[in-house]
Amino acid sequence: MRALVRLAVVCSVAASLAAQARDQPASQTRDYVVGAQDVLTITLWDQADLSGKFSVDTDGTFAFPLVGRIKAGGLTLRDVEADLKKRLADGYFKNPQLSVSVESYRSQRVFVVGEVRTPGSFPLTGEITLIEVLARAGSTTLTASGEALIVRPVGRTPAAPVLPNQAEASELIRVDLNDLQRGVGASNITLRDGDTVFVPRAEPVYVFGQVKNPGAYPIQKDTTVLQALSLAGGVTDRGSTTRLRLIRVVEGKKTEMKAKLTTVVQAGDTIVVLERFF
Questions:
Q1: In total, how many domains does the chain have?
Q2: pLDDT tens by residue, 213-261
Q3: Domain housing 241
């Protein structure tokens, strides 16, 4: 639980950084690859009447005054700018000064679903990492599990999120959120167009008997009996921390065993706190 709180803090910081990145000038996203339905803003500094907004058609091209249709799909903003500048310099203007930026990002996106505060589709505005997109989704919830699953389609770009059980032609990448929170570099995956980030709900354990708030509680990896009891508000005055029973289903059979406060619980376990002898 504390790890999730720390992750929420990290994501809050990342949200601020992501917001700053979105507000940065287009010159800092020059390597963005243009796609169909993107809307480009083209500014000619010495020919203001030719400046404007231009939508990229489904074939990856857009029409521009004087030079006709220009290919943009699959090219970076830098490449589009260089091509347009070359065409305008060929018989029209001497050394034209212009810039190309993105007005609306519509061609590339990633999906974030599951245990996040604001699931949805988020535009790819250049290079974006897992922690940045989790920040845009409002960070993980307190019921989130300890990992994120990245479903990466192979050979196609989906129009909707692809969940792990639907990932027949996809690559599945598992990321430990605790590693992400600790800043382990390899865990902060750079996302691609069409990726789905799925944060599953944490599996619960059940705590009953002499605890203040009996019920089901989500657990993380390596959660102990003591931590599970803490989630349930702790033991009552009549409860005993040495009289603990753990009920676990193993291969379809229910087994009951004694437990200690240091015992690591598993998803689906039931912890029963018995009364003290005196």
A1: 3
A2: 999 999 888 899 999 999 999 999 999 999 999 999 988 899 999 999 9
A3: 204-275
